[in-house]
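User: For a reading group we're discussing how well predicted structures match intuition. Take Methyltransferase domain-containing protein. Before you show the prediction, I'll give you the sequence so everyone sees exactly what went in.
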Amino acid sequence: MTGRSSSWKRISGDIPLNELEKLQYRFNAWIEQRRLPFETFPVDVEPYVPVLNIEALRHHFGDAIMRASPTRALCFDFILEQLPGIFPEKPRIFDLGCGVGSYSEFLNAALGYEDYQGCDIQERGSWKGMKKPGVTFSVANLGEDCIALKGATSVFTQSVLEHIQYDRSVLDLLTVEEPSEIQHVHFVPATCSFVEHRYHGYRRYGPGAISRLLDNPSVFDVRIYSMGNAITREMYWLQKGKLKNYQKSRAKTDIQYDQELSCVENLANNRKHIITKEAKEASFFALVFKQRLAPSS
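Assistant: Thanks. Here is the predicted 3D structure of Methyltransferase domain-containing protein, as structure tokens, for the group to look at:
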């Protein structure tokens, strides 16, 4: 099967780029921005209103939440506050692009899953220490290899799909042993996140890319949540000790950022200002949907 992608991009920012390739990559990002006003989402987008209970976040995610960037902190908050109501009780989770495997611990802390399967393009040394009853890891090339879900009820990714050239093929290549309805949750960077992450993956996800990604007859019950805005993008750089302005000057909000506090604590202190007002200004999206799968004939 020919690989299917939600974008035309062929250059990945995950590998060293020469100056011409960097120029092409920036041009692609510029095109994404220019197309943004003319594209539409497949469904209405709901702004995620974070809770940001620092004590609860620290209890469940430890030091990771205190080191997190603004968008990663918002994703952690979504996991803690929303995932228990989205995934079934005691879910069987398949984590696509699991990396070092840290979400085997984070998701268990938030959800108390029945079992967890992590999969990545290469084996990680950290997996050995994380393997235990109910926690397994495997190697596969996402978007090109068939992925057997092996009884999983829920599929999860954190900042993974943008790194996969044939991201639409990921959904095509999931396999099951019996007819199943799989619950998906995928966190993906939005178009405006380029100012934060720069050369990162093949693409960011605007309305068009999201529509193409989810244009699959097996996908239904789609919900999209927006996260972050120009203020969280400014906070990303303030966390690094740099001052950058992304707000429109006519509607600029002065935020209070204390360098003695963690980024997530600063988010909590500015909570009312960091809620996305317009979906196209978001920094990140949570894509929530179900997929009907049947065994291959």
